[in-house]
Amino acid sequence: MNLSNIKYRNLIVILIYEHHTLARLFGENENYSTLLHELARYTGDKYMDLPNQKELLKSLNISRSKLMKIMHKLYDDFLEKIKANKGYKIRETQIWYRLSSFEDYWTIGVHKLERIPRIGEHIEVPFLRNYIKCIPTFVVTDVHHQLESGIHRIDIHMRDRLQNKDIS
Fold this sequence. Notes:
Blueprint: H1 8-17, H2 19-26, H3 33-39, H4 53-60, H5 64-82, E1 92-101, E2 104-110, E3 122-124, E4 137-148, E5 151-160
Parallel strand pairs: 1-5
Antiparallel strand pairs: 1-2, 3-4, 4-5
């Protein structure tokens, strides 16, 4: 990947969202420690309040070219580190069922699954009822995986089988 094409806004989002992993991997590196320390101010619930270039340049007291060079190098080193076996540590896995039954919608957090269901598989959820008051059978319509900040989130989207045009 040509890192010179990655602009400030994209880099800052990556560095903030992956701050926990970056701090673990590079927190002791003198080339990155000052930047990582400054970025720590924007982690947690403050994701929407990303630092603009001007304020980051002022707080670090460096030139724009030097800031971009450090950010690109940090991102490049991060990509190299996570290529290694077990390079990206997953601290937590979150599994979510996203269930749709006509006008009803439920989100259920699942503690553990032996295996991730595939698109087209049917799943009964006996404690829910659909509009005709029967136990709905859901069909998996989409499975979405997301890795961010050491968290692997799995969203399993399902729709009531009665909603599908081809009831099988």
